[in-house]
Amino acid sequence: MILSYRKISYIRTVIYSIGFLICLLVIFSFSNEQLSRDRSKTVRVMIYNIHHGEGIDGKTDLNRIASVINKENPDILLLQEVDVNLERSQKIDIPTYLSDKTALSYSVFGKNIDIENGAYGNATLSRFPISTSENFQFEKIGPEQRGILATEISIDGNNLLVLNTHLDHTEGDSERFLYAEKAQNEILPLYGADTVLFGGDFNDIPTSRMYQKLLEEFKDAWVVSGNKNGYTIPANDPSKRIDYIFFKGDIKPDSTWIPKTEASDHLPVVSDFVWIDDE
């Protein structure tokens, strides 16, 4: 039997289509397997000053922020400049909204300022249950009250203390140094944690007193496993490094990177940490 050219073309198209679908299934299965395997060995941490969802274009779009988070797929997320029920962000409870839009089912909010009928502060979201949370506030030196949101998270039997902060940007480093000192001398002793992550927008550069003070207790994830300069602000043309993930204890960063996005005025920092005991 002789097949017509049209039938041959049709059969060829069907074969190509089936082959393409098989390739997609293989890639998808491999990707899911790789993601699962990596997650069993690593903890992906992301810090992000979201500027209440307002991007470089001046538009407030929390779905855009959620897309950035979902693309990086963190296990623990530290957010700064977070609104709850404020007019400028459509009266949305941002921690709850982003928790619903991502795989981060657990969230806590650390309120530092009452604004209108809402609040402003930091938020920590997690794929794993958060066992305790407390927002610590110390002396207000700058124009706004600042805080350190402390959460305890248990991950497959490993206990992790996570500190999340956004420090003052105004001239003079007294408040920033104070919070670094208080974190070390007053917060850490309350928990006695062996493994700690301390991240956020510190509004200070690596040559500052604050940074040097934190290095007495912690290591900088970017210095250990990052590449190039680590600049995070402004998002469209970054020229300064002020957003950090510090760490100590039975964990270390395997890789650290900065995603490119204009969903906020800051760029996020993402780091994959491995448990030292697993090596």
Q: What does this entry look like structurally?
A:
- The chain is α+β, with helices and mostly antiparallel strands and 279 residues long.
- The chain is built from six helices and twelve strands.
- It has helices at residues 5-41, 62-72, 94-101, 174-191, 209-214, 221-225, and strands at 42-49, 76-84, 106-115, 118-126, 130-136, 148-155, 158-166, 196-201, 219-220, 243-248, 251-257, 269-275.
- A six-stranded mixed sheet has the order 3-4-2-1-12-11.
- A hairpin with a 2-residue loop joins β6 (148-155) and β7 (158-166).
- α2 (62-72) crosses α3 (94-101).
- The chain is globular.
- Mean pLDDT is 89; it is low at 18-37.
Total of DSSP H or I helical runs spanning 4+ residues = 6
Q: Quick one: biggest sheet?
A: 6 strands, mixed
- Residue share in β-strands: 25-35%
Spatial arrangement of strands, main beta sheet: 3-4-2-1-12-11
Number of strands: 12
Structural class: alpha+beta
**Cα separation of the termini:** 63 Å
Task: Provide the helix percentage.
Answer: 25-40%
For the residues shown, what is the average pLDDT?
89
The shape is globular
List low-confidence stretches. Answer: 18-37
The arrangement of helices and strands along the chain is: HEHEHEEEEEHEHEHEEE
Condensed summary:
With 279 residues, the chain is α+β, with helices and mostly antiparallel strands. The protein is built from six helices and twelve strands. Helix 2 (62-72) packs across helix 3.
